[in-house]
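Bumping my old thread because nobody answered last time. Still need a sequence for this structure:
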C-alpha cells in the first residue's frame, strides 16, 4: 500500500472513490454488453436472412435496418451521446451517472456489434445451409442449428472485440458525466492535472482489456475443439 501511495498519491487519497468508479465501469459494461448482445444478434440475424438470396429475403426490411445501422455508425460517439441527452433523460430519467450512461452506450455500441455479428454469421459455409435445406429443415431451424451454432467461435471472437470497444466508450461517456473511470480521469487527471490519476485509470483499463481478451481466446479455443 505504501508503494501504491508513493506512485499514485492522489488516487490513494481517493481510493474508495476510485474503486467505486471501477465498479461503475464494470456495471456499465455488464448491463450494456448483455442488452446490446441480444439486440445486435437479433438485428444481425435479420440482416443475414432478409438480404438478397437470404432465407427470408425482404428488400424493404433489409434496406431499413442496413441504412439505420450505417447512419448510427457514422455519427461519432461523443456527438451522439450529447445530441440524445434529452432522449436519454426521457428514457432513463437522468443523463448523468451510470444510469444516464447506459442508454447512449447501447445506442453507440449496438451498430458496431451488429456488423461484427453479421460478419460472423456470414462466415457460415454455404454448403451447410444447402445441406440443411436438402434435409428438410425449416428456415427457423436453419437459423438456429446452422447459422447460430456453427458461428459460436466467431461470435465469441467478435464479442470480445466489441467489449474492448465498449470499454473505450465507457471512458468517453465520462466527458458528459457518465460516471466510471472515464469520469474519474476527466475530473482529476485532466481538470486538476493529476498525472497519477490518468495513469492509474489507463492501467486499470489495460487490465480489463487483458482479462476480456484472455477469456475470449479461451472460449474460442474451447468451442473450436468441439
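Sorry it took so long. Here it is:
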Amino acid at each position: 500500500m505504501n508503494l501504491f501511495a508513493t506512485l499514485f498519491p492522489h488516487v490513494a487519497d481517493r481510493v474508495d472513490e476510485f474503486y467505486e468508479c471501477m465498479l461503475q465501469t464494470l456495471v456499465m459494461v455488464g448491463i450494456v454488453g448483455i442488452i446490446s448482445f441480444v439486440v445486435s444478434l437479433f438485428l444481425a440475424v435479420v440482416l443475414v436472412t432478409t438480404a438478397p438470396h437470404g432465407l427470408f429475403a425482404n428488400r424493404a426490411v433489409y434496406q431499413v435496418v442496413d441504412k439505420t445501422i450505417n447512419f448510427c455508425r457514422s455519427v461519432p460517439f461523443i456527438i451522439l451521446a450529447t445530441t440524445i441527452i434529452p432522449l436519454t433523460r426521457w428514457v432513463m430519467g437522468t443523463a448523468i451517472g451510470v444510469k444516464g450512461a447506459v442508454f447512449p452506450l447501447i445506442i453507440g455500441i449496438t451498430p458496431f456489434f451488429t456488423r461484427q455479428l453479421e460478419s460472423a454469421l456470414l462466415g457460415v459455409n454455404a454448403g451447410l445451409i444447402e445441406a440443411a435445406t436438402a434435409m428438410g429443415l425449416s428456415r427457423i431451424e436453419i437459423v438456429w442449428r446452422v447459422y447460430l451454432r456453427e458461428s459460436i467461435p466467431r461470435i465469441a471472437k467478435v464479442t470480445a472485440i466489441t467489449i474492448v470497444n465498449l470499454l473505450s466508450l465507457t471512458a468517453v461517456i465520462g466527458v458528459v458525466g457518465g460516471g466510471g473511470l472515464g469520469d474519474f480521469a476527466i475530473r482529476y487527471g485532466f481538470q486538476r492535472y493529476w498525472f497519477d490519476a490518468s495513469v492509474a485509470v489507463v492501467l486499470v483499463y489495460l487490465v480489463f482489456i487483458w482479462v476480456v481478451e484472455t477469456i475470449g481466446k479461451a472460449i474460442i479455443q474451447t468451442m473450436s475443439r468441439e
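The chain has one domain: 2-225. Let me know if any region looks off to you.
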